[in-house]
């Protein structure tokens, strides 16, 4: 990476631009800056989730994800640079398979609810989807490899699965299962 920040209030962004890792400046409204911001927000949301009681294996996984998201953000900040490795996507695939294997099959759509940690995982999932949309929009003009797109797609799926895992972990005594959506169809078909 080109420069490390030594001071935070540089005032160089007062004109509505921000500096990339390669020294170029872009408008803060540029799609690249939006994608970087969404990935940063996702990482911050994971930090909030990590402040909750979590099973040790989930905590370890999320800390690794935070580091990979920092790599992804770094890659977005230096067009043409590769920081996020294909192994990171494979690791998410493996985690998805591992955690999904023990979950019961879904009966219906579930609400983003249950324990506090599960609800926070759902918030992170929705932020991951927004970050994915921003990176997809950026990729439409080129300059984004497939790994960042795949990583964000897998991560949002993993966060959904982890929300289900966290409800079952029931670390705050308020969960235990998924919170199913009570659709009109279910109400109509109920005995």
UniProtKB/TrEMBL annotation:
Decide whether keyword Nucleotide-binding is in the record.
yes
Q: EC number(s) on record?
A: 2.5.1.-
Where is each Cobalamin adenosyltransferase-like domain found? 8-165
Q: Does the keyword Transferase apply?
A: yes
| Keyword field | ATP-binding, Cobalamin biosynthesis, Nucleotide-binding, Transferase
Q: Which GO terms describe its molecular function?
A: ATP binding; corrinoid adenosyltransferase activity
Give the residue ranges for region: Disordered: 1-22
Source organism, top-level taxon = Bacteria
Gene3D superfamilies listed in its UniProt record: Cobalamin adenosyltransferase-like (1.20.1200.10)
Q: Which reaction does it catalyse?
A: 2 cob(II)alamin + AH2 + 2 ATP = 2 adenosylcob(III)alamin + 2 triphosphate + A + 2 H(+)
InterPro entries named among the record's database cross-references: CblAdoTrfase-like, CblAdoTrfase-like_sf, PduO-typ
What are the GO BP annotations of this UniProt entry? cobalamin biosynthetic process
Family that this chain belongs to: Belongs to the Cob(I)alamin adenosyltransferase family.
PANTHER family from the entry? CORRINOID ADENOSYLTRANSFERASE, CORRINOID ADENOSYLTRANSFERASE MMAB
The name under which this protein is listed is Cobalamin adenosyltransferase
């Amino acid at each position: 990476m080109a420069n490390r920040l030594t001071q935070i209030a540089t005032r160089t962004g007062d004109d509505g631009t921000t500096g990339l890792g390669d020294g170029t400046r872009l408008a803060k409204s540029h799609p690249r800056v939006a994608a970087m911001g969404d990935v940063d927000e996702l990482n911050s949301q994971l930090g909030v989730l990590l402040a909750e009681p979590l099973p040790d294996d989930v905590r370890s996984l999320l800390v690794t994800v935070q580091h990979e998201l920092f790599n992804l953000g770094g890659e977005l900040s230096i067009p043409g640079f590769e920081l996020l490795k294909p192994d990171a996507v494979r690791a998410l695939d493996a985690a998805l398979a591992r955690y999904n294997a023990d979950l019961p099959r879904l009966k219906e759509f579930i609400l983003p609810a249950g324990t506090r940690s599960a609800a926070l995982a759902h918030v992170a999932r929705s932020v991951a989807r927004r970050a994915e949309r921003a990176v997809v929009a950026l990729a439409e003009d080129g300059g984004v490899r497939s790994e960042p797109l795949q990583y964000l797609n897998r991560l949002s799926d993993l966060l959904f699965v982890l929300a289900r895992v966290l409800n079952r972990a029931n670390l705050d005594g308020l969960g235990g299962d998924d919170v199913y959506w009570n659709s009109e169809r279910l109400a109509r078909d109920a005995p």
